[in-house]
Write a structure and sequence with these properties.
This protein is an alpha/beta fold. The protein folds into 2 domains: 101 residues, 3-Layer(aba) Sandwich (Rossmann fold), CATH 3.40.50.10860; 143 residues, NAD(P)-binding Rossmann-like Domain (Rossmann fold). The strands form 2 sheets. It has a 6-stranded mixed sheet, sandwiched between helices. A 6-stranded parallel sheet has the order 9-8-7-10-11-12, with helices on both faces. Helix 7 links the parallel strand 8 and strand 9. Helix 1 packs across helix 9, helix 5 crosses helix 6 and helix 5 packs across helix 9. The chain binds NADPH dihydro-nicotinamide-adenine-dinucleotide phosphate. The site of NADPH dihydro-nicotinamide-adenine-dinucleotide phosphate (NDP) has 26 residues, from helix 6 and helix 9.
């Protein structure tokens, strides 16, 4: 029997993970299956029960998507440092009766920016909007990419401040990390890379970011994907930003990280990213 993997979320109809992983398996010659599971919401043990029955049925690993990333964190036995920091888990491996947990969202994002978009972050001024699960997952991989300045802003600024305090010890020499409110951004100067890691675009909203944050050669990166020119990307475009991207590359890259973790072989991503890209204009 093929090794079984799955993604669990609710709703799950929109997921591209089964397509992505089956193409990865085909390309790398791995004997595995990958399905989508709609996890139950509104029941205290429903998520954990679903995971346990998948393990009992021979499951080897799972991706986790909204709204279960925090519950996956809670039920795991072992967690990577970045999963610990983000408090959220997007991939699990089942080994010897244990649930081992990872969060590949941040490394997937950094890889998309640095490798696919050819924008190394070292020495750059980087602004992250939002301090939710995705921003938290991105923080350690971003610090490891050694930007000169990393600023995190959030509506509830205390969340951004708490996050900065948590990772202050991971900062490398020469880098700076600051949390601030949106109202303080005008005074922060311009940024080379501005990441919208809020969920505002999912409801067609724009985070209150001033257009003056973009440098002349800035890249504006929207984590949401498949939504065309979101209000954030439109703001960037209207501010004269040439380089805009959405999170489809991050989606494929985090999947490739999970695949490599499970199967020991890293699949190619470029053709798949092109295939899944919805034009921004
Ligand atoms: P969370 O719910 O954990 O966090 C939401 C964040 O958005 C919070 O910081 C919240 O601020 C902020 N926010 C929500 N609405 C607004 C608004 N109108 N204005 C300003 N800030 C707002 O979400 P996630 O971190 O899990 O997801 C964030 C985004 O990343 C989503 O668009 C999601 O689809 C995308 N994503 C993409 C992935 C990919 O592979 N491409 C992977 C994971 C996520 P506050 O704390 O103040 O409420």
């Amino acid at each position: 029997m093929s090794d079984r993997y799955a993604v669990i979320g609710n709703p799950i109809g929109h997921t591209k993970s089964p397509l992505i992983h089956s193409l990865f398996a085909q390309e790398t010659g791995q004997d595995m299956s990958y399905e989508a599971i709609e996890g139950p919401v509104g029941s205290a043990s429903g998520f954990s029960d679903s995971v346990k029955s998948f393990i009992a049925a021979g499951g080897r690993g799972m991706n986790v998507t909204a709204p279960f990333k925090l519950q996956a964190f809670e039920i795991s036995d072992e967690r990577s440092e970045r999963a610990e920091l983000s408090g959220a888990v997007n991939a699990m491996k089942f080994e010897d009766g244990r649930i081992i947990a990872e969060n590949f969202d941040g490394v997937g994002l950094v890889r998309d920016i640095e490798v696919n978009l050819h924008q190394p972050m070292a020495g750059k001024r980087v602004l992250i909007l939002g301090a939710g699960g995705a921003a938290r997952g991105a923080l350690l991989p971003f610090i490891a990419a050694r930007p000169a300045k990393l600023v995190i802003t959030n509506r509830h600024v205390d969340k951004a401040r708490a996050l900065v305090e948590q990772v202050a010890g991971s900062l490398t020499a020469g880098g700076s990390l600051t949390a601030c409110g949106y109202a303080d951004l005008e005074a922060m100067g311009r940024f080379d890379l501005v990441i919208n890691a809020t969920s505002a675009s999912l409801t067609g909203q724009l985070p209150p970011v001033p257009p003056g944050v973009f440098s002349a050669s800035a890249i504006a990166y929207e984590l949401a994907y498949g939504k065309g020119l979101t209000p954030f990307l439109r703001l960037a475009r209207n501010a004269g930003v040439q380089g805009i991207a959405d999170g489809v590359g991050m989606l494929v890259e985090q999947a490739a990280e999970a695949f490599a973790w499970w199967r020991g072989v890293r699949p190619q991503t470029r053709a798949l990213i092109e295939r899944l890209t919805v034009p921004l204009d």
